[in-house]
Specification:
With about 240 residues, this protein is of the alpha/beta class. The protein is about 40% helix and about 20% strand. It has eight helices and eleven strands.
Length: about 240
Amino acid sequence: MSVRDTTSGQARPLILVVEDEASLVTLLRYNLEKEGYRVAEAGDGEEALTVLAERKPDLVLLDWMLPTLSGIEVCRQIRRKPATRELPVIMLTARGEEGDKIRGLNTGADDYLTKPFSLPELTARIRALLRRAQPVAEKGTLAWGDVTMDMAAHRVTRAGKAIHLGPTEFRLLQFFMQHPGTVFSREELLDAVWGPDIYVEPRTVDVHIRRLRKALHCDTETDIIRTVRAAGYALEAASAA
């Protein structure tokens, strides 16, 4: 196995780099450690799952094209397992077509970077995603309709049932619940949830909205995310309709 990690500074975030190109792994390790992160490596998809079973990193940088098991399948398995379903994942790939980006996001990736990418952009996206993944500082709860968000415990329920959300979907729902009934454009949601210093394509918002809807809605539940044609999205409860 090619898994290695630094041994000092255990409080620093641990990033798992899943990439089979040795020169890129070396470059990423050097720059990530310079930014203060700990780094673990896996050279293929099966090895990545082995590492994840042994220890949980704070974020995964996941190449799409991997030996033994594709990055897409690794991402699917990350999202299927309760222990890792909320783990932040950034997909790295040479595939630049919009359809490929949407496929990667639909599989469960939180962000997507096309090779070649700039290291400052990568580290900025890592910081933003780790920030979104941290429990919110606010205390107390938010409630709208039958949805309750315990911000201190980072827990969401609907009609008493636990709802499992990734970090981006949690922040989206938090923002909506803090501004119920208000319609926000994709650009406004990007600024509020991703941050104004991070460039993310507006279509990315649509993917995360779909994931939020899927998590919130069972067959018997009402859709509380309203799509406003040519304007954006808003949160509304059935009782507010």
